Amino acid sequence: MSAAQNDIRELGASEQEGTAASDARKLAIERDFRREQLAQRRRGRRRQLLLGAGGVLAFLAAWEIAPRVIPGINTKMFPPPSQVAGVFVEMTFRTGEIWPHVGASLLRALWGFLLGASCGIVAGVLTGRSATLRQFTDPVLHGLRAIPAIAIVPLAIVWFGLGDLSKVMLIAWGAFFPVWVNTFIGVRDIPVVYLRSAAALGAGPLATMVQVALPAALPFVFAGLRQATAVSFVVLVAAELVGAEQGLGFLISFAHLVFRVDIMFVGLLFLGAIGFLADQLFAWLLHRFFPWYGADARR
Amino acid sequence: MNASVKRAEAGRPAVSIRDASRLYASSGGELNWAMTGVDLDIGAGEFVCAIGPSGCGKTTLLNTIAGFIKPTTGSVVAGGQPVTGPGADRGVVFQEYALFPWLTARRNIEFGLKMQGLDGPARRARADELLALTGLSHAAGRYPFELSGGMRQRIAVARALATRPRVLLMDEPFAAIDALTRASLQRELLRIWQELRLSVFFITHNIEEAVFLAQRVVVMSAHPGRIREIVDIKLPYPRNRADPAFGALYERISAAFAQNEEATQ
Questions:
Q1: Is B142 near chain A, with CB under 8 Å?
Q2: CA–CA separation, A114 and A117 (whole Å)
Q3: SS3 A59
Q4: Which of chain A's residues have a Cβ under 8 Å away from the Cβ of B99?
Q5: CB-based contact B15:B201 (threshold 8 Å)
Q6: Which residue among A220, A257, B48, B219 has its CA within the 20 to 30 Å range from the CA of A61?
Q7: Are strands B73-78 and B15-25 parallel, antiparallel or unpaired?
Q8: At the fourth CATH level, which superfamily is domain A81-298?
Q9: What percent of chain B has pLDDT over 90?
């Protein structure tokens, strides 16, 4: 008897014998299928990881080689990664001289961000809920928003000096506008059914504002806060470049004065890393504390 | 006890609408009568359905009773008091997605109680009652996005009932629900209505739903929105869709619709 005939006979037999055998076969097929799916996904992830790492390596290699092979390039002006890495390790671990700068910058960014963002949320909710207030404040707020935050750095220094206060105020200024505008749009465009539900359940104006309008607008508020973190770093560095005694922006401008491009690169590296981590932290906090956020979009 | 008997017993209607109309202006400045000359009493403990094509003013009528909008002319009285705005004496259930997505099912139900200033334990106890009433005790901790459409509408009913309103206003609450789930939601709604002896004003565009649920069906027509006819449904509960009398009433309301269309064309 041929193998094919055997298979056919087995198939017929298993049907006749009942469901136990066919159930076992189904389970086996499902197991293989799932294994194949997992393997596929793993291959996809590995590919993505390898390509990403390859890109970084290629970039570093090109940067390492270019200053050495292209004639007329001074490695002092365009230091290769190996040299930057040396300075990075020196400043980060051996002497640790970078940390006071990182700390000063982070504190300024944090306080400025908190101040600007909280004012932005309050202003956004108020102007979003009250047409009178909105019409009263619109020309002024939009006029002020149109001024690039960096343009008022000199003014802030005149008013608040070269210390931390001027940086915090500038960052607060920069962070305020994206948070305000986004919160305002979120509150203004709340689905009317939420407001009506709240009203039918007996919520007054204040409760509606705090317990309905604000949470309903949270996706917008968070978009604003995220924009504001980016703006905070831009304004921070601008303010520190102009005048400071500490901070990553100060470090970069100091390195410029003493012509140490490698130190500039280390400062940039830290700024990039901080910006990236702040954004990641944000996404994580959002997911952790607002599990319902974006759930409809994820489905 | 038959609900229409209860209606006769209660002296005062739960909701009384006199000559209510509502004028809207479109963004182009065109005027449009969304509702004209509506007279309607909803008895205490009565189940009334409103049915009609879009633009017939049924949602305008519900929003007027709820107090979301003021009638241009006429008056609305609920529970003996003129309606001046929304209030916890009239619960509202919307079509869908009206639950607060940032609150769990339990907290959604507790919202109205919180607004009334009830303390935590009292809110919890009341929410537990309503979760049991709607058969969703197991889903108390879930967010709306974790609930099916049918479960969401059960929670929406529970939320509207939490403050013990005497009137429940429902704006096509089951329109987005699949047919099988809808049938079970309808049966549950009737059970809750009979248990709590509420007045219900229920909007639908589904004739069968209206005949299955209501003691009276208000048939409305559009351009301008008005009441065309009020049909009494005297069938005993629970109703049987296969009953010839059910079919006859269905036909009668269908025919009223057809007249509607001829009238508007």
A1: no
A2: 5
A3: helix
A4: 197
A5: yes
A6: A257
A7: antiparallel
A8: MetI-like (1.10.3720.10)
A9: 64
Query: Inter-chain contact B87–A194, Cβ cutoff 8 Å?
Result: no
Rounded CA separation B128/B136 (Å): 9
E-only strand ranges, chain B: 15-25, 31-42, 47-51, 73-78, 81-82, 90-93, 167-171, 199-204, 216-221, 226-232
**B66 min Cα distance to partner chain A (Å):** 7
Of B193, B118, B109, the residue nearest B156 (C-alpha): B109
Statement: B3-89+170-175+199-264 belongs to CATH 3.40.50.300: yes
Question: What is the nearest CA distance from A42 to chain B, expressed in angstroms?
Answer: 29
Q: Spell out the domain ranges in chain B.
A: 3-89+170-175+199-264
Q: What is the pLDDT of residues B94-126, one digit of tens each?
A: 987 799 999 999 999 999 999 999 999 999 999
Per-residue pLDDT of chain A (299 residues; tens, 9 = 90+): 455 555 555 555 545 556 788 888 999 999 999 999 999 999 999 999 999 999 999 999 998 888 888 888 888 888 888 888 998 998 888 998 899 999 999 999 999 999 999 999 999 999 998 999 999 999 999 999 999 988 998 899 899 988 889 999 999 999 999 999 999 999 999 999 999 999 999 999 999 999 999 999 988 998 899 999 999 999 999 999 887 888 999 999 999 888 889 999 999 999 999 999 998 888 888 888 787 776 554 43
Asked whether the beta carbons of A98 and A91 are under 8 A apart, the reply is: yes
Distances (CA, A) of A29 to A14, A16, A152, A154: 15, 20, 68, 71
**At a CB cut-off of 8 Å and minimum separation 6, what does B145 contact?**
A292, A295, A296, A299, B101
ipTM for the complex shown: 0.87
Lookup result for tokens 């209510």: B20
Q: Does B148 touch chain A (CB under 8 A)?
A: no
d(CA B130, CA A234): 52
Q: Do B97 and A191 touch (CB under 8 A)?
A: yes
> For the stretch A146-177, what's the b/e string if a residue is b when 16 or more beta carbons lie within 10 angstroms of its beta carbon?
eeebbebbeebbeeeeeebebbbbbbbbbbbb
Distance from CA of B1 to the nearest CA of A (A): 30
pTM for the predicted model, two decimal places: 0.79
Which of B:98-137 have CB within 8 Å of A?
A: 98-102, 111-112, 115-116
Domain spans, chain A: 3-68, 81-298
Residues in chain B with CB shorter than 8 Å from the CB of A191 are 97
Alpha-carbon gap, residue B97 to B131, rounded angstroms: 19
**Which chain B residue shows the shortest CA-CA distance from A199?**
B86
Q: Residues A186, A121: contact at Cβ < 8 Å? A: no
DSSP annotation of B78 reads: E
Structure-block tokens of residue A245: 């005694």
For residue B253, pLDDT over 70 is answered with: yes
Q: Cβ contact (<8 Å) for B102 and A291? A: no
